[in-house]
Please model this.
Amino acid sequence: MINRELIRTKIVQLTYAYYQNGSKNIESAEKELIFSLSKAYDLYNYLLALIVGITGESRRHLEVAQSRAKREGTPMPSQKFAYNRFAMQLEGNKMLLDFMENQKKTWNDEPEFLKKLYLQITESQIYKDYMADEEDSYDADRELWRKLYRTLIQNNESLDALLEEQSLYWNDDKEVVDTFVLKTIKRFDEKNQSHQELLPEYDNEEDKDYARKLFRATIMNGEEYQRYMSEASRNWDFSRLAYMDIVIMQIAIAEMMTFPSIPINVTINEYVEIAKIYSTPRSSGYINGMLDAIAHHLVKTGKLLKHIEKR
Model:
């Protein structure tokens, strides 16, 4: 689940913090990086567990409605949402159960939030259409949760505030993690029952090594990389760069120099996108031009043995 896009973003955040806090302890900073990446995986599981929490809340409402119907002799309420097949499969998922067993918190600790979100769901047109639809299938049940997640969970200010209270890391991670939750919902297959695999923390050990190597190269060779920036910036107003821009370019240079298999254009494009989020409005264009100039300078001087494709 932890991909290179997320790793790059975390390294930008942690490198900036490394220089700002003044401690200059690379061992501690590296541990912080790995820990912050693991917290993103925790969030992935926690958001999947939210579907289970909402389902539990729906059953509590169903029990109340059933008791009322018995007393008043009215038709029994539908169990369609409370026993949604996809939600039940997720509820019994062995990987998710193992994860939640080791956590100190569950969604049952947030009864008011669950109740509020459940009511938002039942008032939505998505829910109403689902309940009125005569189709009764696993695919329809799974599709309901994909739509509900995209509409009411992915962009939910109350949820964002709650998550930020629980972990300082999660506020920055949620947008990326949401995409992995939606990917997981789409991948679920009824025949896999409780053994459906969730996304692993890392796709492979290579990505974990990539995170460590990139961070260490960025810090250990920082002065050298900043010198490359100065050498290549004679026609640029380097002195007016935002400090975040310098950090982003330093990491980009580290990636160019440390990972022969990653094309230069890929590296530049990735860090230009990060600059759009984390730096000034004009930074992405500036960084794009600077990194292109730096890459050509490094190739020309023989410091970087890579081919530069036309952009």
Q: What stands out?
A: DSSP finds 14 helices and no strands in the chain.
